[in-house]
Design goal:
about 55 residues; mainly beta; two-stranded antiparallel sheet
Amino acid sequence: MKIRCPRCGKPTKVWVTPDSTVLQRFPLWCEKCKHESIVDFDGASQRLSRQELTS
């Protein structure tokens, strides 16, 4: 399963296994919209922690 960008909704290049992956404050970079977001993933759902400003 790929994690989706919380800003544009497109899949990113980050693959996770839903039953065994836990991410906390993970810096997720989207190559489509060129934006970095800090996300949490608990195996079933993805939550946006905060958005980073990128130039």
